[in-house]
Amino acid sequence: MKTIEEIITICGGVEGLYAAITNEPYMRLVIEHIGEGPHGLPAISVAHYYELNGDLCQDPEMRFEIERTPNGLVMHPSMFQMANPPVYQEVSNDSQGEALARELREFAAMWDNNLRDQGFLQAAKRLQSNAAIKS
Fold this sequence. Notes:
Elements: H1 2-10, E1 18-21, E2 28-36, E3 42-52, E4 55-69, E5 72-82, E6 87-90, H2 95-117, H3 120-134
Antiparallel strand pairs: 1-2, 2-3, 3-4, 4-5, 5-6
Helix pairs in contact: 1-3
């Protein structure tokens, strides 16, 4: 999750984070602090959004609890959802939850690499550079 971690750093950290990154031709990426997660750690939502019949739809959205370590941020997945087809998965504290968390970590790693390859890190840098110029 190095791409997401770098975007979080560029945007000033987790607390109060809200970053909406437009990077055509891809769907808008939104990363935002959503309070505490199920284990009391700071939590973020990472989502691609598109509009369908006037409604915002996630494709996908993942929620992570953020643990700060000496080696950087560790992101523990706690939820996955998509609007179409409708999918909602929440990580529980049992063996099924552990299996889902493992699956979501694998998906998140692939997604994170795709975000970097698609230029979202560079788009976030441009966004912050433009914000600094405007202030």
